[in-house]
Design brief:
628 residues; mainly alpha; Rossmann fold; two-stranded antiparallel ribbon; 28 helices; 52% helix
Length: 628
């Protein structure tokens, strides 16, 4: 079958050609059509340079628009009117079979020409019109102008073209899901690179070059990185790859096509260079890769990190807006390969990257996403054992304190925990109650409130009220049986006494207020050791535990908190705890660390004596380390 040779009029309402991804796409598509024997003419604005091989027709020169940059501008409406008449004149002479319109402005012009001349129209959609205007700071989120351009965008997306092609799968999916475009009307056409102009370097060489440019900078370096990211960001193997690599199979080696390091390095380098000119592209990239169903989440991580380093007001607004719209964090952890039993244990890398960016810049305008921040904190209770290195909880705590709503979060937690002085905020209470089932159980609002309080509260004025909560909870009765006949030891529900006491003791340790010492000493001395209720049969499945008491070993956190207070009055009870082997290993280890922090000359001698032949290696090392 002989392919019909077409005359194609391509509309490019931009300053074509300059060094950016949009213009590379226009040029490469035109060249591809010419190579297949089609006759192409490009109609564009007057600024820019002509590229070889493609006849380019421009609107009349406007003296005050000689340096018009890419992106939205109030000059564009009259430039588009001029471009309409320039294209109409060309169409009457050239008699095109097809109009190929880039960008929404091109589709608007092309729609008028289609109606007037009856020529079929293909719309080449590069992204969102209103989204780009918002990202550039041209219109404000929620403003009348933004709503106007959203309505205009809907009319263009849904009513002007005979067919739509997009630069990436996420853009195509957005047109279908958000704008209601029929699925058979849209097809992604991924950007390509002419390898006769661009040598296809090994990806590792490109990664190394990207990292080097991130250190060297310069206009040429920033431009090269922008062009590379613009070309490559649409290459997304993950929606297809994840179908056969879900769960424990979500892995790849360094040479695999799915390995994300090269593109991540280029995006991060734009952040290291503080390239504000790249911010709109990175904002669009983050927005288009925030849905795990269609996204390259590795690219989203890097884009969030880069936007945080660039730090323009528009970039920070974008980070906050995207965070507020992210799906629940287990959706992300499953995408990254977590087993279903563990998806609530781990923080989402995309959530983490955005929060880290907001924290690193010290930005305070995060009040609107405080409920989202709360919901994003992993709810699996096994994480409570990682207090010293839980970076996600540390970051969330700092961002919430800086948001201005820290006191509201603290008061809501205290109210849930039974403080009669405290008053709840409805949106915060609802977020605290949102938890996910995982291996360690599903915490109720009481346990969750104690967890959140431990990561947010650093104000000593709350110490008496928090101390009162620990005093009320540490000796509550527990009627939850330890079940050993299911193959894996489980509990039927999470024990409030253990978890609330654990997190409240941690909160008091973070406050490090000497007023807590008497009550903490009393609690550690009077609460029964973990083995007081017996030990499981070592020949049964209970051998995984060394005592019948439920976990966590909350008394370990009491011992840790005593070390944080810096008060020597805690030394006797800590030494007694270390020498009583009915205390759990966790509790004795925490007591050894705390004693080493507080030890005077006499206590140092005792720590050396105990450490000399202590039977458990971890505690022996802690004792000797504290004594030196």
């Amino acid at each position: 079958m002989i392919e019909r040779k077409l005359r194609v009029m391509m509309l490019a309402p931009t300053t074509y050609f300059s060094d950016c991804g949009c213009h590379v796409r226009i040029y490469e598509e035109a060249r591809a059509l010419v190579r297949r024997g089609h006759n192409v003419r490009i109609v564009t604005y007057h600024p820019g340079r002509d590229m070889p091989g493609i006849p380019t027709l421009r609107i009349p020169r406007i003296p005050w628009c000689g340096k018009l940059s890419t992106g939205p501008s109030w000059h564009k409406p009259y430039l588009d009117i001029l471009m309409y008449y320039r294209a109409l004149k060309l169409a009457r002479a050239f008699r095109p079979h097809l109009i190929h319109a880039h960008l929404h402005e091109g589709a608007l012009i092309g729609g008028r020409l289609k109606k007037r001349l009856g020529i079929p129209l293909v719309f080449d959609c590069h992204g969102s019109l209103a989204g780009e205007m918002t990202d550039h700071g041209f219109v404000r989120e929620g403003s009348f102008l933004q709503r106007f351009f959203l309505r205009r965008e809907r009319r263009i997306n849904c009513g002007s073209a005979d067919f739509i092609i997009t630069r990436s799968g996420p853009v195509a999916q957005d047109l279908i899901d958000r704008w209601g475009v029929a699925g058979n009307m849209v097809e992604p056409l991924i950007d390509g690179v002419d390898t006769t102009l661009f040598r296809p370097y090994d990806r590792d060489e490109v990664r190394k070059a990207s990292v080097a440019l991130g250190h060297l900078g310069g206009d040429a370096g920033r431009r090269s990185l922008r062009e590379y990211v613009a070309r490559e960001r649409g290459r997304n193997p993950y929606p297809e790859w994840i179908r056969s690599h879900g769960g424990d199979n979500a892995r790849f080696n360094s040479r695999d096509e799915a390995n994300p390091r090269t593109l991540q390095s280029a995006v991060r380098s734009l952040g290291w260079l503080g390239d504000a000119e790249a911010a709109p592209m990175l904002m669009e990239t983050l927005r288009l890769n925030a849905d795990p169903k269609t996204a390259n989440l590795f690219l989203a991580e890097a884009a969030a990190e880069a936007l945080g380093r660039i730090g323009t007001p528009e970039a920070i607004t974008c980070l906050i807006d995207v965070f507020s719209k992210l799906p629940d964090y287990p959706v992300f952890t499953r995408w990254y390969g977590d087993h279903d039993a563990l998806i609530a244990c781990h923080a989402s890398p995309v959530h983490s990257a955005i929060i880290e960016a907001l924290d690193a810049g010290g930005f305070s305008g995060t009040a609107s996403i405080v409920p989202d921040l709360l919901r994003s904190v992993p709810t699996d209770m096994d994480r409570a054992l990682l207090s010293g290195n839980d970076d996600y909880e540390t970051l969330v705590g700092r961002v919430m304190r800086r948001s201005g709503r820290g006191p509201e979060v603290i008061e809501t937690c205290l109210a849930i925990l039974g403080d009669p002085q405290a008053k709840q905020q409805a949106d915060i209470a609802k977020a605290i109650a949102t938890t996910h089932q995982a291996w360690g159980g599903k915490p109720d609002s009481l346990n969750r409130a104690a967890q959140i309080l431990s990561l947010v509260c650093r104000d000593r004025s709350y110490e008496p009220r928090i101390r009162e909560i620990l005093q009320k909870h540490w000796n509550l009765p527990v009627d939850i049986p330890r079940v050993f006949d299911t193959g894996i030891p489980v509990v039927t529900k999470l024990p409030a006494r253990h978890w609330v006491s654990f997190f409240i003791a941690r909160t008091l340790g973070n406050l490090a207020d000497p007023r807590s010492v008497d009550m903490l000493v009393k609690t550690l001395a009077e609460s029964p050791p973990e083995a007081a209720s017996g030990r499981p049969d070592p020949l049964g499945p209970g051998v995984l535990f060394i005592h019948d008491d439920l976990t966590p070993c909350w008394r370990a956190e009491v011992a840790w908190a005593l070390g944080k207070t810096g008060d020597f009055r805690a030394l006797p009870v800590l030494i007694k705890t270390i020498t009583n082997f009915d205390n759990s290993t966790d509790t004795r280890y925490a007591a050894a660390i705390a004693a080493g922090q507080l030890a005077d000359t006499a206590a140092l001698t005792e720590l050396r004596r105990l450490g000399k032949d202590y039977p458990e290696v971890s505690i022996r090392r802690a004792l000797l380390r504290g004594a030196n």
